[in-house]
Amino acid sequence: MSAVGDQPRGAQEAGDPLIRALEVAYRYMSPRERTEAELRCHVSRRGFDAAAVDAALAVLRDQGYVDDARFARMFAEDKRTLEQWGGERIERALIARGIDRELAAAAAHDQPPEAEADRARELLERRFRAPPTDARDRERALGVLLRKGFDSELALEAIASYARDVRYSAAPSKR
């Protein structure tokens, strides 16, 4: 993608730092969407001064190529669906990518708590054929959920729910 058609006024010259900074940013964004912080760091490391970096990012925001809110929503949904991550891990990962804390928290926790609990329970059911029965198995199950980024209270409730529901479904029915 070239910045030539969308050049800001005064950036007609090929040696203009803004044009070169935009070219670097466009190439960096090519394989996947990036956060503003990732782009700022990448373009800055290529030797551009702060003014050129700021100007390039302003152009990219105006063109709709950089949108941290969109990035956070897409990232959260992907990690929930593909990696079975919990909200806490998603939030930490977004903050590590330079997303504002409030924006990261909103994207990571944009679903009702019941949906998060259901995902934790589904993860347990996939990872453990039967509910954990002894302390060692419960610790392993808890470790899986915590590493995936589920809140500890929610993880403990998911483990208890899995054990409770399987116990009740295995009990013979009274007629």
What does this structure look like?
The structure is a single chain. This protein is mainly α. It has 3 domains: 14-66, Arc Repressor Mutant, subunit A; 67-111, Orthogonal Bundle (Arc Repressor Mutant, subunit A), CATH 1.10.10; 112-167, Arc Repressor Mutant, subunit A, CATH 1.10.10. The chain is built from 9 helices and no strands. α4 (68-82) crosses α5 (87-96) and α7 crosses α9. The radius of gyration is 23 Å and the shape is elongated.
Structural class: mainly alpha
Number of separate helices: 9
Strand content: under 5%
- Quote the average pLDDT: 88
Output the helix-strand order. HHHHHHHHH
DSSP helix fraction: 55-70%
Shape: elongated
Give the N-to-C terminal Cα separation: 71 Å
Provide the CATH architecture of the largest domain: Orthogonal Bundle
Main beta sheet strand tally, sense and closure: none
Q: How many structural domains can be distinguished in the coordinates?
A: 3
* Poorly predicted sequence stretches spanning 5 or more consecutive residues: 1-5
Q: How many strands?
A: 0
Mind telling me the C-alpha Rg? 23 Å
